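Thread title: Can someone regenerate the structure for this chain?

I was given the following input by a collaborator and told the matching structure tokens would be attached. They weren't. Posting the sequence so someone can regenerate them.
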Amino acid sequence: MFAASSSTPDYDDYHRVMLRHLGLDPTPQFLPDLGRDVPATTILEICPDVMETLQELKRRGVRMAVVSDAWPGLPDAHTALGIGEFSEAYAISAVLAYRKPDPRMYHHASAALDLAPAQCLFVDDDPSLVDAAIALGYVGRAVCRDSATADVPSVVSLVELLDLF
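Best answer:
Regenerated them for you:
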């Protein structure tokens, strides 16, 4: 496992380890291709209900932050996707060197918004991470697009979150 720190391996080292783990030969010709930038819009897409929900939450004055087990370039990816303007803060695992459900991930975002956990709604597509946030005092909703789950408070569509504000 690699964690963000002053001793974090560079991407070539990371790719060598991963390729070997997959049984592939990390040739010098192959490594540059793995490190090239790929526009976020070619590999990511937002669900149809995202933009309208974010716009309405912003219109209502709801402050938002992102808590994600992701790479440092996530804010740029969000900007490229047209949703960057909605987040005031980011808690990104590759930057903070810990991952959800570590309480520091959740607390980093709520502290950046200067809000207590009970004043925050944590939304994730992993019910176990929502459960962890609820245990820390956050309000939580799991996004279960196929059907709501009885194990943790959930929604099928992000539009349902508007009922909470």
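Helices lie at 11-21, 31-35, 40-43, 48-59, 74-80, 93-96, 103-112, 127-135.
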